[in-house]
Specification:
By secondary structure, the protein is α+β, with helices and mostly antiparallel strands. Helices cover about 50% and strands about 15% of the residues. It has two domains: about 10-80, Winged helix-like DNA-binding domain superfamily/Winged helix DNA-binding domain (Arc Repressor Mutant, subunit A), CATH 1.10.10.10; about 90-214, 2-Layer Sandwich (Muramoyl-pentapeptide Carboxypeptidase, domain 2), CATH 3.30.1380. This is Transcriptional regulator.
């Protein structure tokens, strides 16, 4: 009979959470510093650090304290580790757009988002040249969307191609400003250079954003 994997000792996850919080609060730390702050042994601290590295939450670096002295190994948060902490970006975006709308009118929000679209399109257009098949351009778009947390997929159906987003990383903003979704649709149309039609929208309470492409 195969033995079940041992459950983590009580308090293990809490210790890892505290460790991440210490690195967030104090910046890159050595294993010795973290062990002292957590009041655990250095080998115990290293085990937690190893686990957090495997989870992609921490990375090891070699730095000189204060820019001089002997190099030492420190542990710092990765982008994924930073993302584990609460952010207020979405509420900040809503506030900024609200002030733009109040000061300059509803059309100004769409102008701002349109300018953002133009910048994104200029950056991504070389990855989706018109000479490539639509399937390749669509897959390139899916790859970019997934880098930003959209959990996108593309599939071929009898009626043509579809693009589905299973997550909306901008949901808070999209619920307040439908212009964001309109700008998103315009961006996809411009990048793919074919008609794109949205059929469902997460911001409207549906389970996914679903598009017909071509």
């Amino acid at each position: 009979m195969t033995a079940l994997p041992a459950a983590p000792p009580p308090g293990t996850e809490r210790t890892k959470t505290r460790l991440l919080d210490l690195v967030k609060r104090h910046g890159p730390q050595t294993a010795q510093d973290l062990a002292a702050r957590l009041e655990v042994s250095i080998p115990a601290a290293r085990r937690h650090l190893c686990d957090l590295q495997e989870q992609g939450l921490l990375e090891a670096r070699t730095e000189r304290p204060g820019g001089r002295g002997r190099p030492q190994h420190v542990f710092a948060l990765t982008e994924r580790g930073e993302a584990a902490f609460p952010k207020t970006y979405s509420s900040l975006c809503v506030d900024v757009l609200r002030h733009i709308e109040t000061l300059y009118g509803e059309g100004a929000v769409l102008e701002v988002l349109g300018a953002r679209n133009a910048e994104i399109a200029a950056r991504l257009r070389p990855e989706m040249p018109l000479g490539r098949p639509l399937a390749e351009r669509l897959q390139a778009l899916v790859a970019r969307l997934n880098e930003h947390g959209f959990e996108a997929t593309a599939s071929r159906e009898e009626a043509g191609w579809t693009l589905t987003q299973h997550n909306c990383p901008n949901l808070t903003v999209a619920r307040h400003y439908a212009q964001l979704c309109a700008a998103e649709l315009s961006l996809y149309t411009e990048l793919l250079q074919v008609p794109v039609t949205r059929e469902t929208r997460i911001a409207c309470g549906q389970g996914r954003c679903h598009y017909r492409v071509g």
